[in-house]
Amino acid sequence: MSLILDHRVTPARPDLAASRLRGQVEARAFVDPEPRRVVAASAPVRREPRPDAPLDTEALSGELVDVYESHEGWAWVQLATDGYVGYVPDDALRLDAPVPTHRVSALRTFIYPGASMKLPPLEALSLGASVTVTGEAGDFLVLADGGHVFAAHLSATDAYEPDFVAVAERFLHVPYLWGGKTSLGLDCSGLTQLSLAAAGVGSPRDSDMLEASLGHPVAFDDSLQGLQRGDLVFWKGHVGILTDPETLLHATAYTMTVYSEPLRTARDRIQAKSFGAITGVRRLG
């Protein structure tokens, strides 16, 4: 009998599934994955293999994925970072891409064809994207593919930010994008996941997954007293980050931006108009 598994993080379809799931799910065929890396600045992870399908999340440059199928320009993959499953454009992936050495620590940075800011940039990378550095050229680091990135915008892959809340605050006013995970646009759980990752904390993708797995619960009542900076506040389908005991930072469709507002104001509006009452508060550490 097949188990009831979360389709978001389970590489299984009626016709195809990961070989490790044999005996747990029903499928007509089982396959071993082929590891590839994302070589695009970012790659959409869509619910179906077509460009107008819903965007569930994004994979960033350097991210490792397991590919279970490639067909008509789309790869059916599972992301190594958070286990999310979906369809990624085939041309965003490469089989023999080198292992990243550095991560983008700026909110966004450009790749140049040479060691000069006056050259027309080739690409833009968002915070959290990773690259392979092979050399130095003045104020720039040289990438394996020949591109150049301003050195101060990169950090070693094992160097982490001390405060994930400070990382999140840098996204203030960035546009809201359902499924987004870059400084061009992101959603509430994308903001939380990216900020935690910059501080070395791995986490799942969606708000319900975050609430079920991160930290420990914090007791609260209608007064919302006793909360602190870094607490994560959850609703059914939404999450925000406290930047102080009374202020919530969240990517919200209310303003279609990353927005900072009094927690009580957000609590009252969300309860009345969208996600209902607060379901929980979680504290890391």
From TrEMBL:
Assigned keywords, A-Z: Hydrolase, Protease, Thiol protease
Coiled-coil positions: none
PROSITE patterns: NLPC_P60
Domain NlpC/P60 as annotated: residue spans: 158-285
InterPro entries, per database record: NLP_P60_dom, Papain-like_cys_pep_sf, PG_Endopeptidase_C40, SH3_16
Record GO terms (molecular function): cysteine-type peptidase activity
UniProt GO BP: proteolysis
Gene3D superfamilies attached to this UniProt entry: endopeptidase domain like (from Nostoc punctiforme), SH3 Domains
Family under the similarity heading: Belongs to the peptidase C40 family.
Protein name in UniProt: Peptidase P60
Native source species: Bosea vaviloviae
